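Response to reviewer comment R2.3. The reviewers asked that we include at least one raw input/output pair. We reproduce the pair for ABC transporter ATP-binding protein here without editing.
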Amino acid sequence: MKTTLEVQNLCKSYEDSNVLNDINLKVNEGEFLAIMGQSGSGKSTLLYSISGMDRPTSGKVMLYGKDISEVDDDKMSSIRLNKMGFVFQHSYLLKNLSIRDNIVLPGFKARTKSREEINRNADRLLAKTGIEGVANHDIKKVSGGQLQRAAICRALINQPDILFCDEPTGALNSSTSKEVMDIINTVNSEGTTVIMVTHSAKVASRADRVIFLMDGKIHDELILGKYNGEERRTSERVQKLSEWLEKQGF
Ligand SMILES: Nc1ncnc2c1ncn2[C@@H]1O[C@H](COP(=O)(O)OP(=O)(O)OP(=O)(O)O)[C@@H](O)[C@H]1O
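Raw output as returned:
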């Protein structure tokens, strides 16, 4: 199995506090990894340090075998634009653009595909996420769930190798969360590697593997295997994960 991302001896400090301490982690191609831990345990710091949004203090981050921890800022921006997609708790869509224009923008910025191809990709993503009906709407005139679907489309417009998600359902109600997680599972089942930070056992139960951060280290991991959406198995996964989280003191 191919390794998409490998983290070697990663440490991250802010002034005099060590947030991450000698993290080693391999994420396989097509894997869905969830990162959990108490508030302040360093989950977002880990996500940002491995996705080039922030720099590790020491250690290496290898993307398909190439060290990206020390590339210059321009190269890192290009890697983020072309190889990585990002979804956060809030959609951060641009207010003066329509849903569709927000989605195609990173496609035009990347300058690797023709206008026609970018538009075709946008149409495919809008249909896949069920928001084609609001494509030309102002972002102030759609629901929170539709905004988050649009954020997922925008993250996928350049067909990234990895989708990084930081609390992607944190601002959504439970039925909208389920719909957004169904989309993320579909994207993953089509081959995109997903790395997601979440507080929620229900959301993390969609992942293949969950790691638990404590004291700046990976304290434990739980293998859940591929999610198949079947109701009974979903509740078994949540149950197994909740018991494991209880053991971690969560
Ligand atoms: N830019 C920064 N400067 C200084 N300290 C920071 C910075 N970013 C994060 N920290 C500190 O690093 C620690 C880990 O923060 P981080 O946001 O990664 O935790 P988290 O597990 O994602 O928390 P939460 O679940 O509350 O979002 C915290 O103590 C935080 O105060």
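The beta strands are 3-14, 17-28, 32-37, 58-63, 66-67, 84-87, 162-166, 193-197, 209-214, 217-223. Helices lie at 43-50, 73-83, 99-110, 115-128, 144-156, 174-189, 201-204, 231-247. Further pairs are available on request from the corresponding author.
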